[in-house]
Amino acid sequence: MKSAQEIFNRIQDIKREQRDLKGSYKDALENATGYREIVHEYNKIRDKKVSIEQKIKRESAAEFAKLESMKNNLKSDQEMLSDIALTHMMKGEQVEITDEHSNQYEPVFSVKFKKKG
Fold first, then answer.
1. Number of structural domains in the chain
2. Inter-axis angle of helices 4-31 and 35-59, to 10 degrees?
3. Residues 49 and 67 in one domain
4. Is 74 in the same domain as 91?
5. Is pTM beyond 0.70 here?
6. What residues does 104 pair with on adjacent strands?
7. What is the rounded CA–CA span in Å between residue 32 and residue 50?
8. Each residue of 67-110: pLDDT tens digit?
9. Co-location of 70 and 30 in the same domain
10. Cα separation of 21 and 14, whole Å?
11. Could you please report the per-residue DSSP string of 60-92?
12. Which residues form the domain of 20?
């Protein structure tokens, strides 16, 4: 079995190669005939879209405030659910949740690595 360091190094190599290929792709797009004009038109249309969205948000400020509050509450509840599930699993207890349609859910945990400092 390979070590964690070997797998990490392989992941870094793949990411580096992806960056190189994406750079080549961007260069090819920049040199493609008509690409810049299309991007310019796209940006103008996107700006109009954003302007309309902002106007609607201003007109519906109360609903968007409620939506933001709900979003924050949901995130907090999801973190709490994860903490509770992890606590139960650490105690050796089985954790299952059932929704209104009798679908059963079980926790899935993953490990991520974050650069120090």
1. 2
2. 110
3. no
4. yes
5. no
6. 98
7. 28
8. 999 999 999 999 999 999 999 999 999 999 999 999 999 999 88
9. no
10. 11
11. THHHHHHHHHHHHHHHHHHHHHHHHHHHHHHTT
12. 1-59
